[in-house]
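Quick log. Single chain, no ligands specified.
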Amino acid sequence: MLVDGNKTDQVNAMVAAIQKADALEWAVFDTDDTTKNDRALALEPRLMIQPRAAKLADVAPLLAKYASHVPVFVEITSIFPMGATHVHAAGTRPQRLVQRAGRARHIARGRRGRYVTYTTIVEIDSVVNGNAG
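-> predicted structure:
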């Protein structure tokens, strides 16, 4: 499940919700703000992250920054397919967001060329505010 870190500045509450749900093995902290990734990793070093690159020039520095904590995905929606080769070479997977029928869907391409599609099921602000269904 992707935990959208762009929805709120309450990084501590998002990380606590992931820990409380015992979801470290399947929740991925997703944001384009690397300071939020850094804050989340300081609270929970085992957290999986998905940083976002808005332009090709962002990819290499982003991968270098997290070389010791390789992201599970790197979102490259706005530049896809550019940057995908760099992301694969760093040992992670590129991802892009696609809008279909009013629902956001994430598509990630694995190393063997297979595509995995999934939808964010729970919005983190619902979890943080106690409204998760």
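Residues 11-20 form the longest helix (10 residues).
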